[in-house]
Amino acid sequence: MRMGFSQSAYTMIESMVVPALSQLVSAVRLRSSMTAMTSALRLARYEAIRRNTRVVLCKSPNGKTCSSTGGWEQGWVVFFDDNNNLHADEMETLLYVEPLLSAHIRITGNAPVSDYVSYSSQGRAKLVSGAFQAGTLTVCETSSGPTQAYQVIIKMIGNPRVEK
């Protein structure tokens, strides 16, 4: 008669594969968040030019209204801002809604892009005041130590570029 017993230790192969898999998942999560942000920026710019009107991308925890608190990881909306008030009013069309991102991701913008990015009908990034808007959104993992990050850089011309 054979007696069974359970073992809870990791094998040598598991101890090598698990950390590598974890790093892969982190890298994919980070890249996908950066891609979502740059895609939304490109959509906003494209639609502003195509429809010859102002389009805004702003932080939004509820997928309906802009927020001046929290980070971009809470989600965002892209909408036509016909009256230039930074609010997605009932008569203004929502083009895209990005829901809450992974709890492991943080997206912060420096002062000019901390709350919103606005594109004029010429596709240029402009503040609601009409001044040019340029800034950097940093996409990284929440971590107590050093981590990989992407910077989404928006210049006055409006087209975002990415640096790792």
Count of β-strands: 8
Gyration radius over CA? 20 Å
DSSP strand content: 15-25%
| Series of secondary-structure elements, N-terminal to C-terminal | HEEEEEEEE
Give a short account of the largest sheet.
4 strands, antiparallel
Mean pLDDT: 90
> How much helix is in the residues?
10-25%
Structural class: alpha+beta
Approximate shape: elongated
Walk across the major sheet and give the strand order.
Answer: 3-2-1-5
What is the end-to-end distance?
A: 60 Å
Low-confidence residue ranges: none
Number of helices: 1
Describe it for me?
The chain is α+β, with helices and mostly antiparallel strands and 164 residues long. It contains one helix and eight strands; from the N terminus they run H-E-E-E-E-E-E-E-E. Strands 3-2-1-5 form a four-stranded antiparallel β-sheet, with helices on one face. Strands 4-6-7-8 form a four-stranded antiparallel β-sheet, covered by helices on one side. It is elongated, with a radius of gyration of 20 Å. The protein starts with 11 loop residues before the first helix and ends with a strand.
List keywords for this structure.
single chain, 164 residues, alpha+beta, 4-stranded antiparallel sheet, 8 strands, 24% helix, elongated
